[in-house]
């Protein structure tokens, strides 16, 4: 199956290369998409991602494809979902902020955070943005990370250091938790095993 991989904020396509390699070894065809939140608003990135998927899938019309996102890549996929090609078949979400993260809300008034995250940072801290964010009508699996370190502002609640485990939950989606920090969850062997099982 063609599998599109979309990275998180502040990362690059390179962060998903090990996952792409393992997917290829398992018989899938990975396709990496890159973006930078400092160069375009979130809606424009989502539209460009949909164009990318449409362009790659055009030669194999009717073939199902999957998307695996990390962190903000999942928000972009949800935003793009109404205009994605209709053969979207599976959605794997790694450490997704499926509701406004407490960390983003705590940081949104910080000028440096605004410079580094652009429009994406503003949207992540906005409950209204999430209330209008589409949910693709496809089989979906959420894989959340959990660390033993009590990160602020999640002290006392399970989190991966960036997103609270409760913030990853999505109605109707299968939900799994692996012992991993946010940044490297795509490299966790249990996360890989869950994704490979889900894709088949």
Radius of gyration: 16 Å
CATH homologous superfamily label? Alpha/Beta hydrolase fold, catalytic domain
Number of beta-strand segments: 6
Assigned CATH class: Alpha Beta
The overall number of domains is: 1
- Which word captures the global form? globular
Chain-averaged pLDDT: 92
What are the segments in which pLDDT stays under 50 over at least 5 consecutive residues? none
Helix content: 25-40%
At CATH level 2, the architecture is: 3-Layer(aba) Sandwich
End-to-end gap = 9 Å
In brief, what are we looking at here?
37% of the residues lie in helices and 17% in strands. With 200 residues, it is of the alpha/beta class. The protein has a six-stranded parallel β-sheet with strand order 2-1-3-4-5-6, sandwiched between helices.
Give the topology, please:
Layout: E1 2-6, H1 17-25, E2 29-33, H2 42-57, E3 65-70, H3 72-80, E4 88-94, H4 102-107, H5 111-124, H6 127-131, E5 140-145, H7 165-168, E6 174-178, H8 189-199
Parallel strand pairs: 1-2, 1-3, 3-4, 4-5, 5-6
Keywords:
37% helix, single chain, globular, 200 residues, alpha/beta, Rossmann fold, six-stranded parallel β-sheet, 8 helices
């Amino acid at each position: 199956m063609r599998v599109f991989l979309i990275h998180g904020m502040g990362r690059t396509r390179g962060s998903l290369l090990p996952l792409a390699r393992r997917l290829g070894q398992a018989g899938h065809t990975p396709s990496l998409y890159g973006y930078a939140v400092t160069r375009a608003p979130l809606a424009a990135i989502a539209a460009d991602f949909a164009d990318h998927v449409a362009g790659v899938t055009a030669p194999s019309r009717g073939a199902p494809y999957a998307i695996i996102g990390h962190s903000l890549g999942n928000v972009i996929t949800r935003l793009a979902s109404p205009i994605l090609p209709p053969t979207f078949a599976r959605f794997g979400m790694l450490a997704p902020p499926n509701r406004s993260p407490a960390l983003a809300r705590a940081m949104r008034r910080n000028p440096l955070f605004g410079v580094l995250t652009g429009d994406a940072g503003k949207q992540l801290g906005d409950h209204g943005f999430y209330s209008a964010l589409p949910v693709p009508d496809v089989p979906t699996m959420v894989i959340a990370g959990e660390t033993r370190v009590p990160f602020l502002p999640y002290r006392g609640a399970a989190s991966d250091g960036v997103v609270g485990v409760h913030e990853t939950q999505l109605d109707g989606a299968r939900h799994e938790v692996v012992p991993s920090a946010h940044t490297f969850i795509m490299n966790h062997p249990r996360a890989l095993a869950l994704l490979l099982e889900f894709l088949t």
